[in-house]
Amino acid sequence: MNPELFPDLAAVESKIVACTRCPRLVAHRERVAREKKREFRGQTYWGRPVPGFGDPGARLLVVGLAPAAHGGNRTGRVFTGDSSGDWLYEALHRHGFANRPTSVARDDGLRLIDCWVSASARCAPPDNKPSSAELLNCRPYLEAEVGLLQNVRIVVALGRIAHASWLQASGWWRRLPASQRPSFAHAAESVLPDGVTFVASYHPSRQNTNTGRLSRPMWHGVFVRAREILDNGP
């Protein structure tokens, strides 16, 4: 992390929102914001990169993939206005990490408690698939958040891309031998050398939730475990 470039979380947010590093993503997010989805035709889309959101003193960090075209790209807040967000914020509320169970707009009064939510890519990508180069362009923002969120004790990575992105942004991908890097599997848990607990989860995408690959009990189990770790230790 460059402390001169990212002295605080407000600076990270400002840099993210102004970012134009990935031409394909800029074109896609702006086209979606112009054309809109029929049910949101009367709304003004955010149409810009989406920053992280939450409690700067958070002990829980949740890392997802990228804003949804008609979710975060519309509302301007991560995991807000789509089905994945419905799953995430309901679980965070149920387990004491949010003051309400729904997230529909930036000004809806949602407040996170001891939790920060971020993403691997900050722009909505076509087909929900950012390229390797686009993820690399976005990595400094996640690196900055990792460096500034100094109270984090548990990280929950939603999906394989988020799993790899956080390991790379935190430096553990480089510092750990390949044989010791945490592997991805739902509810897989690792305690890293600095004491941070790293938990993997399937992403609450429609592809996973509608097919039953990720069930509600599986999903809530991840946050039950997060609460246990924060309340009682690993």
Please, could you describe this protein's structure?
The structure is a single chain. α5 (132-148) packs across α6 (160-170). With 234 residues, the chain is an alpha/beta fold. A six-stranded mixed sheet has the order 1-3-2-4-6-5. The longest helix has 17 residues, at 132-148. It has a single domain (9-232), classed as Uracil-DNA glycosylase-like domain (Uracil-DNA Glycosylase, subunit E, 3-Layer(aba) Sandwich), CATH 3.40.470.10. The protein has helices spanning 9-17, 23-35, 72-75, 83-94, 132-148, 160-170, 172-175, 206-209, 216-232; strands spanning 53-54, 60-64, 115-119, 154-158, 189-191, 197-201. It has nine helices and six strands; from the N terminus they run ααββααβαβααββαα.
Radius of gyration: 17 Å
- In helices, the fraction of residues equals 25-40%
The CATH class name reads Alpha Beta
Beta-strand content bin: 5-15%
**Strand order across the largest sheet:** 1-3-2-4-6-5
Unreliable runs: none
What's the count of strands?
A: 6
Helix count from the secondary structure assignment: 9
Q: Mean pLDDT across all residues, rounded?
A: 96
End-to-end separation in angstroms reads 28 Å
Under the CATH scheme, the architecture is 3-Layer(aba) Sandwich
User: What would you call the structural class?
Assistant: alpha/beta
CATH topology: Uracil-DNA Glycosylase, subunit E
- Into how many domains do the coordinates divide? 1
